[in-house]
């Protein structure tokens, strides 16, 4: 992409309404624009990040055996009356009336709708298990929308729903999502910690929030430092095998959010030097709730004994748009974002230090074509801006690599490659730089 054709409205000043780094940087780097409180337009650069996050989430859901679909954002109130949640949901639900005065709503989540879809199509235990998911915008009229996309009112969520014939099957589905979530966040460069979470009136131990540690996180969390070093299950994980040992390994260490924290247990179980009391961002939540919706909504299946019973369900959410903010909280410095390759809006920022110079223009054109042909995404700063401005803008948007080409370097047969993560610079020939960039981008994407 050529910057002269792109839309990248960067801001020099930090907007005063933004309190945390990710919100400030998303506004400054021209990734988002607030349209109403908690409602954002995703500008081209932010949209690319959102799509990268979404794609990783999708690939790991597919790998775990979940099947993608798409449900509408607008739902009918009737459906929510069946589960009893229409009244219970309160002011967080955006309620709408259509022209015939029918009560509708903008979906805050989809348990009711998926239960309705399931009951229309599945009758027997022989058709189970099933896991269905979609990636769709949700609306929750939060009391305090804040921190940009971290707590929006309109936000993008991946929500999966599992259907099983019995509780053993439901646990197996839960375990698949547990492992899929560990992999999903790790692929983005995030260390997520599954923490015991509230199960509500259903009880049991099958509810975990996936937390990324960050000073600006909204949740107070407590956990064992050893959790940060556990090896994440690999891409060769067999999701049809028994995953319980993986879950047992993670849950053998103490990890709980404030609501479930037990100070005495924390101190008894975790060595003093390993105790982490910190803040975190909830990026995902997995939850088994059995017959909570299937019983009142009559989503029945016939078991092997010929008897009908409500299907066992669970739901599993990932905050796709929240992750864009969480990633910046984890990867930034004074100058701007520092995107991991896997979620970077572009891999390489190509800087032409003297636009209009035949030599630099030619070298940049060659680099741009060669990298694009190799599947490396390039943002080519072909503007007439001064070098200082180009450097600052590139650091702000935080692409993992910069390829800097100027007339003086070219005379000496050199270009410069800068790594945004640690500021490391290499001065090499253009061909060597292209090889280096292709190799580094490819190896970073292979996980
Ligand atoms: P929170 O406790 O942060 O309000 P929640 O428990 O209400 O979240 P869930 O219903 O579990 O949220 O939704 C699944 C995921 O969607 C959450 O783990 C979070 O990552 C994301 N999410 C929830 N609410 C928001 C929001 N207002 N803005 C952005 N992402 C959100
Ligand atoms: Mg939650």
Tag the structure with descriptive keywords.
five-stranded mixed beta sheet; Rossmann fold; 23 strands; BirA Bifunctional Protein, domain 2; alpha+beta; binds adenosine-5'-triphosphate; 2 domains; globular; 13 helices; 447 residues; single chain
Walkthrough of the structure:
It is a single chain. The chain is an alpha+beta fold and 447 residues long. The protein has two domains: 3-336, BirA Bifunctional Protein, domain 2, CATH 3.30.930; 346-445, Anticodon-binding domain (Rossmann fold, 3-Layer(aba) Sandwich), CATH 3.40.50. It is 32% helix and 27% strand. It contains 13 helices and 23 strands. The strands form six sheets. Strands 3, 7, 8, 9, 10, 11, 12, 13 and 16 form a nine-stranded mixed β-sheet that branches. The protein has a five-stranded mixed β-sheet with strand order 20-19-21-22-23, sandwiched between helices. Helix 1 (21-28) crosses helix 9 and helix 2 (44-63) crosses helix 9. The chain is globular. The mean pLDDT is 96. The protein binds adenosine-5'-triphosphate and magnesium ion.
């Amino acid at each position: 992409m050529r910057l002269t054709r792109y839309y990248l409205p960067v801001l020099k000043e930090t907007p005063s309404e933004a309190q945390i780094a990710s919100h400030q940087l998303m506004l400054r780097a021209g990734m988002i624009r607030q349209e109403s409180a908690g409602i954002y337009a995703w500008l081209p650069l932010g949209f690319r990040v959102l799509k990268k996050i979404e794609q990783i989430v999708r690939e790991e859901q597919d790998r775990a055996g979940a099947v993608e679909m798409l449900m509408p954002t607008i739902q009918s109130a009737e459906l929510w009356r069946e589960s009893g949640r229409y009244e219970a949901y309160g002011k967080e639900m955006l309620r709408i009336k259509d022209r015939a005065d029918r009560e509708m709503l903008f979906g805050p989540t989809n348990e009711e709708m998926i239960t309705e879809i399931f009951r229309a199509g599945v009758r027997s235990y022989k058709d189970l298990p099933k896991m269905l998911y979609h990636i769709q915008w949700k609306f929750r009229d939060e009391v305090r929308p804040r921190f940009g996309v971290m707590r929006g009112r309109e936000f993008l969520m991946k929500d999966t729903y599992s259907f099983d014939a019995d509780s053993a099957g439901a646990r197996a589905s839960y375990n698949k999502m547990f492992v899929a979530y560990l992999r999903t966040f790790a692929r983005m460069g995030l260390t997520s910690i599954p923490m015991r979470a509230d199960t509500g009136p259903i009880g049991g131990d099958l509810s975990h929030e996936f937390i990324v540690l960050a000073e600006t996180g909204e949740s107070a969390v407590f956990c064992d430092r050893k959790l940060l070093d556990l090896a994440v299950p690999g891409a060769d994980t067999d999701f049809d095998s028994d995953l319980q040992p993986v879950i047992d390994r993670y849950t053998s260490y103490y990890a709980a959010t404030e609501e479930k924290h037990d100070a005495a247990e924390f101190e008894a179980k975790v060595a003093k030097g390993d105790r982490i009391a910190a803040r975190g961002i909830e990026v995902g939540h997995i939850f088994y709730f059995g017959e909570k919706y299937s019983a009142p909504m009559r989503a029945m299946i016939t078991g092997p004994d010929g008897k009908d019973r409500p299907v066992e369900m669970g739901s599993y959410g990932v905050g796709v748009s929240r992750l864009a903010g969480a990633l910046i909280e984890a990867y930034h410095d004074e100058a701007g974002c520092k995107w991991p390759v896997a979620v970077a809006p572009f891999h390489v920022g190509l800087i032409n230090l003297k636009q209009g110079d035949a030599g630099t223009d030619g070298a940049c054109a060659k680099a741009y074509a060669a990298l694009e042909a190799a599947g490396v995404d390039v943002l080519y700063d072909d503007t007439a801006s001064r070098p200082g401005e180009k450097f600052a803008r590139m650091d702000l948007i935080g692409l993992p690599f910069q390829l800097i080409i100027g007339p003086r370097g070219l005379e000496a047969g050199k270009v410069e490659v800068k790594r945004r993560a640690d500021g490391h610079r290499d001065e090499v020939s253009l061909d060597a730089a292209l090889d280096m960039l292709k190799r580094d981008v490819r190896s970073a994407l292979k996980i």
